[in-house]
Amino acid sequence: MRRLIERTRLLVQIIYTIVSNGYLYGFLRGKIYKGALKYTCVPGLNCYSCPGAVGACPMGALQMALNKRDIQVPFGVLGFLFVFGSLFGRFVCGWLCPFGLFQDLLHKIPIFKKKKHLPGHSILKYGKYVVLFGLVVAGSALLFGGFAKVPTFCKFLCPSGTLMGALPLMAADGQLRAQAGGLFCWKLAVLLALTFLSVKIYRPFCQYLCPLGAVYGWFNGFSLVQIRWEKEDCIHCNACQNACPVHLSPEEISVSLECIKCGKCVPVCPVACLKCSPQMPKRKTGANRQECSEQLAGKK
Q: What pTM was estimated for this model as a whole?
């Protein structure tokens, strides 16, 4: 069951990444798709400037709205985030985000001793909110470069833009390579640092820097897609916490701002007290609970 969930999640991530970046002509010619679909957002962090992208990134769209000279409330983008947040929460991060897939694949490389967090995690995890309010919101609304406002997150930090936008475009266009300067070197350094960290630490960008994950996290506790913990059936064996890639306790799973609802915790529970909903019905667990409790008591 555990392998089935992992394989299903990987397949969904790959299919979504291909579909949302399916403009093959753009990759071949180094041209950005500018058709009608580009005016709609896709749920995950998917760079508008990727030559294959058929939709817009929610964070890019939010910055574009804030980049207008007269500050206006971006109701369209906020509505989009509310709808997808209410439906899925950070399930989008765990199952749909292309840059999340990139980090997942890096973490599977069998080198280094794997760790779930960086030192200082309890403080560093708030970094994504600093990025959200400092770069995406305040920076995009207030910072000017010449006569125009600056999309600060996209311009100065976003590693997805470097990986999926800048590098493919520069590979296809010699003039762009010739124009690369200090800003590109900085963003490339950010991407390389996160690439290296992702081999050892599980999804460092998602945990510490992603503003989109910060937004979706606020919806985790009441989104339609949930992993529900049935407290009365739990035997507190910590199997779910050990399987969780970010080491969340049963009480935190699904409702925590950090949970990406990857589903790794569900199949390892020996008494099935964690259940995906609304997709999966409840199962009877009384006999299993008694048996596992006896086994757990025998080990103590």
A: 0.89
